[in-house]
């Protein structure tokens, strides 16, 4: 049996995170690896309610409130979904996690990393993803991909400079070994080949 692993998907809005979830699901399934797929903000009933508030364009919140709500949802997610699954030997694949707070509330909005790091330690107590797939793409490419499809949420509506800061903040974090930076400007096949090779490495790291 493969030891349980925690994988997160990160990147700016429209970078392509959700597009590859099904590929990852099938890749793991083909190897008989049992996995839980989840997302942030969200992943629990309370977390999904908070997600609704956080993404709603009606919501007004101070920077610290926004950050605290993200971590409140994350605490619930860790307690009720992520830690129990890992303890039961299941892999966990989360569409966004704490790197998104460093990127959006930190890089995007200007909350100091040191404040976010306090909350990271509070809720994670040392737990970190084993692999973070960072889908990196120029903000204008991501915006063009999204524009055709949907109404934009509270973060997606931010101006181009905001998304550029979010991207830079992600890339600045990606020096840690758990990160795989994936050039998401390419076609799906090229991206999936990269994802598969990183997953393979994770399986072999047993
Ligand atoms: N490599 C790619 N080539 C072409 N189109 C892509 C690529 N990756 C994603 N797209 C398209 O871009 C759009 C956004 O992709 P997706 O929803 O996966 O992004 P996301 O990172 O999950 O965004 P969000 O953060 O808003 O959830 C989708 O319409 C998707 O089909
Ligand atoms: Mg998505």
UniProtKB/TrEMBL annotation:
ATP binds at residues 11-18. GO terms for molecular function: ATP binding; dTMP kinase activity. One of its GO terms (biological process) is dUDP biosynthetic process. GO terms for cellular component: cytosol. Keywords: ATP-binding, Kinase, Nucleotide biosynthesis, Nucleotide-binding, Transferase. The keyword Transmembrane helix does not apply. CDD domains: TMPK (cd01672). It catalyses: dTMP + ATP = dTDP + ADP. The keyword Magnesium does not apply. Residues 9-195 form the Thymidylate kinase-like domain. Its EC number is 2.7.4.9. HAMAP family: Thymidylate_kinase. Phosphorylation of dTMP to form dTDP in both de novo and salvage pathways of dTTP synthesis. Belongs to the thymidylate kinase family. This is Thymidylate kinase. The gene is tmk.
């Amino acid at each position: 049996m493969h030891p349980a692993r925690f994988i997160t998907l990160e990147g700016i809005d429209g970078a392509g995170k959700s597009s590859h979830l099904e590929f990852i699901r099938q890749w793991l399934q083909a190897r008989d690896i049992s996995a839980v797929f989840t997302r942030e903000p969200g992943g629990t009933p309370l977390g999904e309610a908070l997600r609704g508030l956080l993404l709603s364009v009606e919501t007004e919140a101070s920077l610290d409130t926004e950050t605290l709500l993200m971590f409140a949802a994350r605490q619930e997610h860790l307690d009720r979904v992520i830690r129990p699954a890992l303890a039961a030997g299941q892999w966990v694949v989360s569409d966004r996690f704490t790197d998104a707070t460093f990127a959006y509330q930190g890089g995007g909005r200007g909350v100091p990393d040191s404040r976010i790091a306090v909350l990271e330690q509070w809720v994670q107590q040392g737990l970190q993803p084993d692999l973070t797939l960072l889908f990196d793409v120029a903000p204008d490419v991501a915006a063009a991909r999204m524009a055709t499809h949907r109404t934009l949420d509270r973060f997606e509506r931010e101006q181009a400079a905001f998304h550029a800061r979010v991207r830079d903040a992600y890339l600045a974090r990606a020096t840690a070994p758990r990160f795989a930076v994936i050039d998401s400007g390419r076609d799906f096949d090229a991206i999936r080949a990269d994802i598969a090779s990183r997953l393979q490495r994770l399986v072999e790291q047993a």
